[in-house]
Amino acid sequence: MLKVVEKMKKAYAVIIRNGLILLVRRPGLPVWELPGGELFQDENERNGMKRLISEDLGLRGDIQELIGIYTKEYMDELTYVYKAKEVETQQPINSPVYSAVNFFDVHNLPLNIHPDQKQQIKDYLSGNYPVRTHLKTWKWLFLIKNYIQTKRSSRD
């Protein structure tokens, strides 16, 4: 029997407020990233991004232009990055998901930003979107993640 493997879909948003970009950190990870995450299996990308902004940030967002679609070497992963705008500006952010939420100067990003998302922000700043890019993954990182995933599934 042929097993169809569906790619994991993710969506992230570039949200700009007063010329500053919103970045978030997840608990236990010292890396800043764009808000977003995994989509449900049959979820439309735009609707999923809208849901993630609402659930993870407590904001109402208007999903605007597609910045890019990104695939990743060694992984069945498809990532969509959208430009999003807050429906109500200056609304306080109350996140049940992120350990830190902050706005940064888009031209002076923190050093500990996720490398893939650094590229995605660069694509946003270029203004030449949408893009379709194949991002590189360090093979050793892929092997470690695969090993961890195998160990976890063998315990279940």
From TrEMBL:
Q: What is this protein called?
A: Nudix hydrolase domain-containing protein
Query: Which stretches make up the Nudix hydrolase domain?
Result: 6-129
What cofactors does this protein use?
A: Mg(2+)
* SUPFAM superfamilies for this protein: Nudix
| Gene3D superfamilies in alphabetical order | Nucleoside Triphosphate Pyrophosphohydrolase
- List the keywords (alphabetical): Hydrolase
Q: Which PANTHER family match?
A: 8-OXO-DGTP DIPHOSPHATASE-RELATED (PTHR43046:SF2), GDP-MANNOSE MANNOSYL HYDROLASE (PTHR43046)
UniProt feature coiled coil, ranges:
none
Q: Which domain of life is it from?
A: Bacteria
